[in-house]
Design a protein that fits this description.
Blueprint: H1 2-19, H2 38-50, H3 52-60, H4 68-80, H5 82-86, H6 89-98
Helix pairs in contact: 1-6, 2-4, 3-6
Length: 99
């Protein structure tokens, strides 16, 4: 079950690169008719990209080190994606690193 959630989160991360939008359904797919501008998706990506170092520290410390940028990215991802709301912090941090 957790692998399915992680796969959905990873899919949600990869969709913006191809569709130019971060808006996705609960399955992590992007709507081809999305009206989101590339600027807003770039802002979304920027929050997640900036959290990579914090995500690496979080994963390496088995969740003991929680940086501010990681916290912001986790909050942002959960606001935008249903699958991210169901994923653990560790699963999301690993997905950020796999991106």
């Amino acid at each position: 079950m957790s692998r399915l959630i992680l796969a959905g989160v990873l899919l949600a991360f990869s969709v913006p690169a191809f569709a130019g939008s971060f808006a996705g359904s609960s399955a992590g797919a992007s709507s081809a008719g999305s009206s989101a501008s590339s600027d807003s998706s770039s802002g979304d990506d920027k929050i997640v990209v900036q959290a990579r170092e914090d995500a690496a520290s979080f994963v390496a410390s088995d969740g003991r080190i929680r940086g501010a940028q990681l916290e912001a990215a986790l909050r942002h991802l959960r606001e935008k994606d249903e699958a991210a709301r169901k994923a653990s912090d560790m699963q999301l941090a690993q997905a950020i690193l796999a991106r």
